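Late entry, written up from scratch paper. The run itself happened at the end of the previous shift, but nothing got recorded in the book at the time, so transcribing now.
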Amino acid sequence: MAGSQDYAADPRNEHVKIYLNGALVPRAEAKVSIFDAGYVLGDGVWEGFRLHKGTVVFADRHFDRLYAGAKSIDMDIGMAKAELAAELDRMLAENGMSDGVHIRLMVTRGLKKTPNQDPRHTISKATIAIAAEYKLPSPELAKTGLSLFTSTIRCSPPDMFDMRLNSHSRLNLIQALIQAIKAGADEALMLDPHGFVSSCNATNFFFVKNGEVRTSSGAYCFNGITRAHVIELCERHGVP
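Output as recorded:
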């Protein structure tokens, strides 16, 4: 069994320092409180970056999406985009990283006075954590591909649970993946509320038919930066 998020193990990751609220700490010491809003509620947003040949690829677009997501849930990240980008660069430099790295930048609303839903019970600044790992796709995926199972779990519209928001809560997507795994597949193919193909549980979905590149409308799927670039490339090169 495989998955789109499978990767080649790299022993260097055991020694990478993790960024946590301004400090760079060993992996085993990267901990947050059980009263953190991310743990209590999944209340927060995140962004996935890739470091390739010394460049954090499409960093501006990723930071724009992160701050738009935070604004949509009325969460103050506590620093400007340029400041947070500088902190990311500092962590990568401290770890001596330059290529083949996947970065997960996570922001939650912060500590709660008590475990409940009300954001007014937050008693700290936002929690900011950045985990960078040497992480290249598993070479086996290119040989074998992935098998899909069409899940009964649907992608939801923006006025229910907005799939375009990189929320920490992924339970619906995990449910879809579990269905696929139990059916003997690698990943779930998810439909929108109208029964049209929307996305996979962890990635956007494209296919080619009759010489056309096809994907969903974007109303019910991840607001993928790679997805946007694929569409832009098709338009630029006259691919229908």
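The chain has a mean pLDDT of 95.
(Scratch paper discarded after transcription.)
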